[in-house]
Design a protein that fits this description.
With about 300 residues, this protein is mainly α. The protein has helices spanning about 1-10, 15-40, 45-60, 65-75, 85-105, 140-155, 160-200, 200-255, 260-270, 275-280, 285-295, and strands at about 110-115, 125, 130-135. Strands 1-3-2 form a 3-stranded mixed beta sheet.
């Protein structure tokens, strides 16, 4: 069963930081669910169970084809429509795909290839069955393209990309909660301001000052907590991501593309990235360290 296999794959030492982050996300979401459902009633453990179940359902949606489509849309990935590009990359992709499934039969069936307009040579895997290359990668030597694809198949084999989907959903829910709190603060501030105007006089002025101070303190508190939570998530996810990069590199090495991957990493280490790939690069270990680790596998 896929879900069981998913939890087996993600329960690796390299994923401990991001699993911690997911558990913390679950606790926050469950607490908020409980607070709104039981604030004025007796404690009911079923509310907590329902909160966890609601979060689990959202994760199931993330791991569905819909969740994968959303990530493709967000990252600007689309089917390769240029016939010349497709004729060039398709046989290369199929060759590496066959080799990856021979090495690890758990590499998903029906993996699809997409393209992004970024001119920096790069690629990324997302969801369960998506590999997206950049137009810039098509300009690289064939061996280096194969090495890049092999690396991305390593991520699919290890279910790293599913974990990204799960993290994204958790972040969206927590972000939604923070947005809801911000909206509540703004509405309350507006109501108190209207009340202070109606009162008028010194009492109205006092109420207006109290409202402004209250609004400022709450807004700053929410902003600080949001910033701290985001930074914590980035640190934990980046830690897991960097370890997973080494494992995906080793997968490419086991497929026989170690030298080509070293050559590619050496070529692109000084190439500036923008947008999506700047974010991806920030979660990757230094290319020189990756080359060193690959050379140690020989």
């Amino acid at each position: 069963m896929y879900i069981i296999d998913f939890f087996k794959k993600v329960a690796r030492k390299s994923n401990i930081p991001v699993i911690i982050y997911l558990v913390l996300n679950t606790l926050i979401i469950t607490f908020v669910f409980y607070f709104f459902a039981c604030a004025n009633t007796e404690f009911n453990p079923m509310v907590i169970i329902f909160g966890i179940m609601a979060y689990m359902i959202s994760l199931m949606i993330a791991l569905s084809p819909f969740g994968e489509w959303v990530l493709r849309f967000q990252t600007g990935c689309h089917k390769i429509k240029d016939e010349e590009q497709l004729a060039y990359i398709e046989p290369i992709f199929r060759e590496v795909y066959r080799n990856a499934q021979r090495l690890d039969p758990e590499v998903p069936d029906d993996v699809e290839l997409f393209i992004n307009h970024d001119q920096v040579p790069n690629a990324f895997a997302t969801g369960r069955k998506t590999i997206c290359i950049t137009e810039g990668l098509l300009q690289m030597p064939v061996g280096q393209i194969k090495a890049t694809l092999a690396h991305e198949f390593g991520h699919l084999a290890h279910k790293d990309t599913d974990l990204i989907l799960v993290v994204c959903v958790g972040n969206m829910i927590v972000s939604g909660i923070i947005l809801g709190i911000r909206i509540f603060i703004e509405i309350l501030h507006i109501v108190l301001s209207i009340v202070s105007i109606i009162w008028g006089g010194s009492e109205g002025l006092t109420a207006r000052i109290a409202s402004a101070v209250y609004h400022l303190l709450l807004s700053v508190s929410v902003s600080v907590l949001s910033y701290a939570w985001t930074k914590l998530g980035i640190l934990l996810v980046m830690k897991s991501s960097r370890e997973n990069e080494f494992e995906a590199d080793e997968f490419a090495y086991d497929l026989g593309y170690g030298n080509e991957l070293c050559a590619l990493l050496s070529t692109i280490k000084g190439t500036p990235s923008t947008g999506l790939f700047a974010n991806l690069a920030s979660s990757h270990p230094d290319n020189e360290l990756r080359i060193q680790r690959l050379q140690e596998l020989r």
